Amino acid sequence: MIGFIVMVARKGEGRISELLSEARLAAAIDAVEKAKGVGCFDPIIVATNWPEAAEAFREMGAVVDLDQGDFHFGGRLLALVSKYKLGKVFYTGAASIPLLPPSFLAQIASFLEGDGVLVANNLFSSDWVGFSPAEALGKIVPPSSDNDLAWRLWDEAGLRPIIPPHSTATTFDIDTPSDLLILKAYPGLEGKLASFVEKLPLGAEVVWKIAEVLKDEDAFILAAGRVPSYAWEKLEREALCRTRVISEERGMRSSGRLARGEVRSLLGYLVEALGPEGFFRRAAEMAKAAIIDTRVLMAHRGIWPPDEERFASDLMVPEEISDPWLRDFTRAAKEAPIPVLLGGHSLVCGGIMALVDIARHQGLKGRRTESFPWDVGSLSNPSGEDL
Asked: Is 149 contained in some domain?
């Protein structure tokens, strides 16, 4: 059997941070439910700093392991593997598999039947990782975050990576309030998370408006920030609208550029030249909607406001932001003549892909939806290994 580990953290202070923590909790409950239903995972372990949430998981039959002392991701994961004597492991963040179907978990489990393999949604920046044997974890420098886990298991422990094709289900993560707005409009969402987002006192009107733009073959949409090629490809392949994409500073965290203050943004220079209001006026002349990863702009400016202020920007609440530049930019986005979504990396990655899904559910019939019927079993994944 494979040990299933989900880490659930209560993070930050303030009403928006608490809202996100509750959303992650709901997503984690759904993740445990999926793992139970598949029948391939035992034990199911919930590692958390949230004692009040522990009982809900215990009632589901999960093992709850409360955090003790200072948290370090790699050290914590290694301690769990050792404590529960796990031979094979599937790890996920609390809100990293909200759209992943149970059948996909079963498929991952089948890959882990052998030794010397890892399965992850992204080799270079992972949100969930399955690996066998578990002892490989002891051969790597413990990573400070889960984003480096897959890479180190491959690079330092020599595990063979199996990376599934990128999809909304494999990439969508809940990192910011914008992700919750998208989930509120996402078709077919089920479980505890569906009930949670349905009751949220947040409107998803901007999501519906952007979905309409995706169906307009005469419209352009602007996407800016750490936009990955596969999200851009989904826009190009399945949406009717045309695209203006500024993809920049991908890997700004993992490369150390953010920590060293080296982030530079073309969009950032444009906003500086035109001013926030001028930028959105000009953007509205060239696009009917905009999706912007503001973390790149903040890093370009050399600012990193507290979580609560960044989240307030995502929700277009400028009056709750003390940083002058971010407040002015947020106000300009809110008053822009086109619909604008602000957020982080997850917005321009899985978020863009989910927006296309929403548009398709609302009747979008793209011009490029047919794929050549490749025999996927004969293809190689990005690591060069057979799927």
From this structure: yes
- For the question of whether the overall pTM of this predicted structure is more than 0.85, the answer is yes
Are 240 and 321 part of one and the same domain?
yes
Cα gap 271→279, rounded to integer Å: 6
Instruction: Write the CA distances from 331 to 217, 277, 320, integer angstroms.
Output: 29, 9, 11
CA distance 77 to 79: 5
Same domain, 117 and 214: no
Residues 211 and 332 in one domain: yes
Check whether residue 127 and residue 276 sit in a common domain: no
* Residue 170 backbone dihedrals phi, psi, to 5 degrees: -85, -20
Residue 334, judged by CB atoms within 10 A of its CB (0-12, 13-18, 19+), counts as middle
State pLDDT tens for residues 259-304: 999 999 999 999 999 999 999 999 999 999 999 999 999 999 999 9
Whether 384 maps to a domain, the answer reads: no
- The C-alpha R_g of the chain, in whole angstroms, comes to 21
Q: State pLDDT tens for residues 46-65.
A: 999 999 999 999 999 999 99
Phi, psi of 188 (to 5 degrees): 80, 10
Q: Which domain holds residue 137?
A: 2-164
> What is the sign of the dihedral through the CA atoms of 142, 143, 146 and 149?
negative
Specify burial of residue 114 (Cβ count, 10 A radius: 0-12, 13-18, 19+): exposed
**CA 230/CA 73 separation, integer angstroms:** 28
Q: Which residue in 31, 73, 82, 71 sits closest to 49, CA to CA?
A: 71
Cβ atoms of residues 333 and 321 within 8 Å: no
Q: Are residues 35 and 145 in the same domain?
A: yes
Q: Is pLDDT at 366 greater than 80 in this prediction?
A: no
